[in-house]
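Progress narrative, work stream C.
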Amino acid sequence: MGGELTAFEVMWNEYYRLALERVNGMVRPLPVDYPFYVLIEASGDDADRVHADLEKLLDTAMRANMILDATLSTSNASAAAIWRIRDCSLQLARTFPYAARIALDVSIAINRMDQYVKTIVARIKEIDPGAFTIVFGHAGDGNLHVELHQEHTPDRRQELERLA
């Protein structure tokens, strides 16, 4: 997509699934059982060509087994609905009974993101089995948002913050 790529966002399964389950008014564009969800946006002078290029990109990725499924927005409303999922982290956080939330921004290479997330989620569960993590972020620039939700226990909070 070259310079026409304007967004390359990622949501791990738990974030996507919980956003759809817990935040009012969400529309489900894809099933909730994939490991993660990528939101790609492109723009350019020729909207029809950009759309065709996105279709070609998705078709190539599907044929190469790089992706399992895809949806392509055909209107501003459908694009806004997908962005609403990506941007609902504060509304989602307010739906949890835990008062304590630790929000971290982590910079990491794209090819290391999935392993990092698996590792940090496992470490968090070792420290506090009741805690859980939602992950989303800007895959295109290597920045992940790691949000940790747990009961307020100051001794655990310091240990959890050191994980990132």
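Work stream C, second folded protein:
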Amino acid sequence: MKINKLYIAILLSAGITLQGCKDNSFLDVPSRENVEANDSEQVFTPEQFVNGVYGMFTSWDYSFSYIGITDMISDNADKGSSATDNGGDKADLDNLTYTTTTGSFKSMWTRWYKSIGRATQAIEYTEKFGLTDQAYKNRLIAEARFLRALNYFYLVRGWGDVPIQDRDLIKREPASEVYAYIEADLQFAIDNLPVKSAYAAKDLGRATKGAAQGLLSKVYLYQSKWQQAADMAKTVINSGGYSLEKDYATIWRLAGENGPESLFEWQARGTSIALGIQQYSQVQAPRGGLVKLGWGFNTPSENLLNAFNAEHDNIRRDATIIFRNSTLYDGRVIDAGVENAMYNMKAYSSANGGADHTDKNVRYLRLGEIYLILAEAANEVGNSSEALNALNTVRTRVKLANVTTTDQAQLRQLIWKERRLELAFEHDRWFDLIRTKQAKTAMAANGKTFQDKMMLFPIPEDQRIQTPDMPQNSGW
């Protein structure tokens, strides 16, 4: 039984490779270009196919292109590194001078569609393999559908109308249809995934019911489906499966990986720190000086620092920003000779020491954000009491005074500010600015000119060359 449908949009020609991060046992999968279920040399299990989808998060794309189009492009971050090192297209992203040929867009468009193709193949393979344990079969399919939904969520937020691969490789479906497709995948995942505590230790990091519920609440938020977002967020909060980490800074350290607050993380840590998410920490680690840990890209902006200071938010500031001429929690000294004044603490790996591969899990979704989803959604439906309770739960952890206003417009602005401070460098700031229509004002305050066409990313020029009938986004 050959697996013929690869569903890869970009260039329409990429093969699949079942290769993942070997730091977690469930990601320890072989590499193979062509896979047949009845191959006499090796038969791949459905679980290995699903593991290959997780492995897509460990690639170089997530260490450079990803941080470029999610952080550097926003008011939270500057390009960093040295003034003469543009990082390919990173100066263009930072300065909002990017075009249809900006390579980071092509890289992530390709990565997300390849991941979707791999997830769809895993679903089809699992469905046809002949598994007799229906619960196990449905769990594997649910994991793949969760991962497929996550990748489509990036695409629809970035580009709006996009192709749905198993329908048409070229036709751009309305964003509403893409969201409906995502919702269907996540609902199946919710119905068929176990809770976090039900997994064996070897499977820690797999998608869970709570992860699917949390992602669905976020998907509802981005569509302004306020009541549904609030209801799903409350389902996660009230499930009893998660709790806020008491110390905010711990979330980003070894002790916080897959901790009580974590709904979903990209797994990287294991017995060897030489394997993991390729260069995620190194690319963002302090550059120069005596430490020489990394390349120094994606540095916190003065604008972000001022936002922390204006709120007197020292706890989250110091858990988010590495300052020049300081000593870190593990005793490492960041001397006065490093090239930039600030670096991203949330990407810092104490054990990594500047190695090419990171041992640090990337936190994708956590309970702190779920509380803020509930706060925003509850405020929008007029439930200020519920909104304040959720908002102040997050603020209390970092020793900030309770918000008391019940004015909907004022509370909305305060919740948006809280999202920025709580979730800085968690790769959602740009999408939040677009969603809340703050981008033009926020980027102007950061000294950058936002154009209306930037409400959506440009379809990569290479994709348009391969599929000229695919329409470009307006203004590009």
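Confidence is low (pLDDT under 50) at residues 1-40, 270-274. No further action is required on this item.
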